[in-house]
């Protein structure tokens, strides 16, 4: 870990900024990202448990907006409309919205 301090004059005020940098191997960074995504998906499945009060999914299969549109035979604007109306729930991860496949399959029944 490296610590850098930098003084910046913004609007006549002296501000001290600290920047922390960490060194990770590609493998360590990959594991950190995978764990973060796994945590977000686990939180999502806890908030949206499957029917009949069964336990939440540990690693649910997720779908992109494009995959959901193809699965339901709808356009992207219709998917957005359904999401705003609460007919379909999705989770935003890194600027994209993902959907739990089992929840989408329930809509087809």
Walk me through the structure.
The chain is an alpha+beta fold. It has one domain (2-51, 59-108). Helices cover 44% and strands 27% of the residues. The strands form two sheets. A three-stranded antiparallel β-sheet has the order 3-5-4. Strands 1-2 form a two-stranded antiparallel ribbon. It is elongated, with a radius of gyration of 21 Å. The termini are far apart. Mean pLDDT is 75; it is low at 7-12 and 51-58.
Write the layout of secondary structure elements.
Layout: E1 2-10, E2 13-21, H1 26-47, E3 62-64, H2 65-72, H3 76-85, E4 91-93, E5 96-100, H4 101-108
Antiparallel strand pairs: 1-2, 3-5, 4-5
**Describe the biggest sheet?**
3 strands, antiparallel
Structural class: alpha+beta
Strand order of the largest sheet: 3-5-4
Shape: elongated
Low-confidence stretches: 7-12, 51-58
Helix and strand run: EEHEHHEEH
Overall average residue pLDDT: 75
Strand content: 25-35%
What count of structural domains? 1
- Total of helices: 4
The value of Rg in angstroms is: 21 Å
Distance between the termini: 53 Å
Record keyword descriptors for this entry.
3-stranded antiparallel β-sheet, about 110 residues, about 45% helix, single chain, 4 helices, two-stranded antiparallel ribbon, alpha+beta
Concise structural overview:
With 109 residues, the protein is α+β, with helices and mostly antiparallel strands. It is built from four helices and five strands.
